[in-house]
């Protein structure tokens, strides 16, 4: 059996009615009509506006000078400019462009101000975090020093025989311990050489 191969044939735009340009100009639409690919029969107003503003002969000359890949963009640009010129005979599309540029500048200013506000908030947050860290460090150092003083006091009491029940009292050591802890010096008992206990005041 012979193998069936699909052959691609170029598609052509076939219509029974002339393009919008030829219909508007009341002429026969040729196969090589330069307007036909860009002004279909169902868009008569598009060509009417372009013809009114630029003229059919000028558009024909422009399209013939352009590469076929560039013609569609050129026609769309001409159609937009013609439509805006008919809406605003004084400024045309320039008025719309100026308005869009103004809006763009305003948005850029708003964006700059917003970024400035965010930068201030970030700086304030960083300052608050730094202050909190400093306060925490100071508090830690305070309580650390307090615990160290307590440890020194306990060390002195152990080495010099200061007993919690007050039976033996050494005034000099108790004064040093009280100075470290910030507590007042109290009464105590001193054991005499003969073994008798005598009441004594701290210095």
TrEMBL record:
Domain LOB: start-end pairs: 17-118
A Gene Ontology cellular-component term: nucleus
Entry keyword Nucleus: yes
One Pfam family linked to the record: LOB
Family annotation (PROSITE patterns): LOB
Record has Lipid biosynthesis as a keyword: no
Chief localisation class: nucleus
UniProt subcellular location: Nucleus
Membrane-traversing stretches: none
Keywords: Developmental protein, Nucleus
Protein family according to the UniProt entry: Belongs to the LOB domain-containing protein family.
Protein name (Swiss-Prot/TrEMBL): LOB domain-containing protein 6
